[in-house]
Amino acid sequence: MARSWMEYRTPAWVQWCPGCGNFGILAAIQRAISELDIEPKKLTVVSGIGCSGRSCYYIKGSNMHVLHGRAIPVATGIKLANPSQTVIALGGDGDMLGIGVEHFVSVGRRNIDITVIVHDNAVYGLTKGQAGPTLPAWIQTKALPGPNLHDNINPVLLAFASGYTFIARGYAYHVEQTKELIKQAIEHKGTSLVQILQPCPTYNNIMTKQWYEERIYYLNEEEPDWDPVVSTHDEYIAKMPRILMKLVEWGDKIPLGVLYRNIAKDTFEERLSKIILNYYEYPPGRRPIEVEGKPLIDPWTVFKEKVVETQKI
Ligand SMILES: Cc1ncc(C[n+]2csc(CCOP(=O)(O)OP(=O)(O)O)c2C)c(N)n1
Ligand code: SF4
Ligand SMILES: [Mg+2]
User: Ligand 2, closest atom to CA 198?
Assistant: First the structure.
């Protein structure tokens, strides 16, 4: 029998404001990993800096809280060293699409089997409500001295253009549906994005629960023939116009659910295993680093050879 989601809680005190959408996202992640029955030691949640970034303290796993915007490169390294590990990189809209946007894009080119979760409240919650990269132009949330003059990034369209092979959008207060999306994202082989619309009752007084709930709808409910899975080039060409329409839809109506899934592309790990034939049996994380107390590699010799010697002019 799968572990209860309660077993994925930690004793850490949850430091979010009352009503914060992060509570729903945390519950959805804990329920997803519990239903997938992932052992805590086989799970790594890597998070960046922000209110959302604190999630890694609240989920039981071999987790890391890293520098602002750097959850994806750290998650990439962990996955490549331990391909059997389930790896989730999470952060806010600022973390993932502001300071970390270069990593958000680059990971799509590799199709590494990790799940990226964006807690999207359209503001920098932790630093007191500045405009985030997903805040639409002309909106003035309460901490801004005037309306936002920047256009907003569309995370799902950017993920598509970057090569992500699974793209979904959920809503933080709908724990059950968001849990299902996270489960599918984790099970998908390749880089997955789940953008989660997350009300921030403290700083985003425009994009509130009511604002979202007047706009969101579930694709599989409103369009029962919705099928965003592509497995061949011909299917890709045939389905693309409709998928693109949904990726760009944002305004009076905001679609939720799986927006795109490509099961034809190989993962970076699969590509690596074609050059390193024993990669899966003997990944870097399983190789010894010392024998009889002595390191296999002397860091000073390596530093001298690779850095000091090459700097000689
Ligand atoms: C290098 C660096 N620059 C700036 C900051 C300050 N800072 C901390 S969190 C944050 C933005 C948080 O916004 P977001 O990623 O959307 O997370 P949220 O708090 O909304 O969940 C910023 C700018 C920092 N910690 N490190
Ligand atoms: S500031 Fe906003 S995002 Fe941060 S904990 Fe409070 S409600 Fe949540
Ligand atoms: Mg934010």
Answer: 3
